[in-house]
Amino acid sequence: xxxxxxxxxxxxxxxxxxxxxxxxxxxxxxxxxxxxxxxxxxxxxxxxxxxxxxxxxxxxxxxxxxxxxxxxxxxxxxxxxxxxxxxxxxxxxxxxxxxxxxxxxxxxxxxxxxxxxxxxxxxxxxxxxxxxxxxxxxxxxxxxxxxxxxxxxxxxxxxxxxxxxxxxxxxxxxxxxxxxxxxxxxxxxxxxxxxxxxxxxxxxxxxxxxxxxxxxxxxxxxxxxxxxxxxxxxxxxxxxxxxxxxxxxxxxxxxxxxxxxxxxxxxxxxxxxxxxxxxxxxxxxxxxxxxxxxxx
Length: 296
Prior knowledge:
The chain is an alpha/beta fold and 296 residues long. It has a single domain, classed as Purple Acid Phosphatase, chain A, domain 2 (4-Layer Sandwich). It has seven helices and twelve strands. The strands form two sheets. Strands 3-2-1-10-11-12 form a six-stranded mixed sheet, covered by helices on one side. A six-stranded mixed sheet has the order 4-5-6-7-9-8, with helices on one face. Helix 3 packs parallel to helix 4 and helix 5 runs parallel beside helix 7.
């Protein structure tokens, strides 16, 4: 059995000092939003306690689905690199970027320079995404929907070339009989993806690929809520699971911080996958198991 832990939307706090020059971009809107709202709702102590609880579970692999930072500052990327070492080494932790990691042009490239080992694996050619990590019978496929956009836009896009590479990998890994876990920051299901300002612009193309190749599980972040949904696959629905922000304070605006654990095991020719959700309640500081459900 392989245990996979999933967290997302780290949004490391507090925000480092920001120069006026750095604010002469889209960052000005994010800076104002942080000062007026997010600094009260994204707490470092919340994240620290949640991660400590998750580490006690001794998962075989930890998946992080993006938004390590807030404004894409170099100082934030350096802090994220240090924080990841506390979470674990790149051999047990894998990461796909979110829109905040590509907040302005060049931010994602700077992040990959500092902690690109966490966003790496087997790839097709020289392209960094998708990458594949294999752990026994589990194959993690990391996609990047992170792109730099204008003010008030938090949308994502994969691009035709990345989607085509993902199709090839999913087909090959499926033929090997592996449990394929797709990591992506922006959710692919239509109820979230259709938004022009926050959605995944080429979600229909990704869903077309998934309908043909299949996958066993899709994990995402971005919405700051916990959710269980699905998209069509070739032989039935593919579970799609989102998780709340790992830094969200229990008394904040968003859903309280949470993480998910997936126990994945092959019995004969069938998969068993048990999901457990842990996190804070609205009242109190305790982290508890909030949900347990069988995915397969």
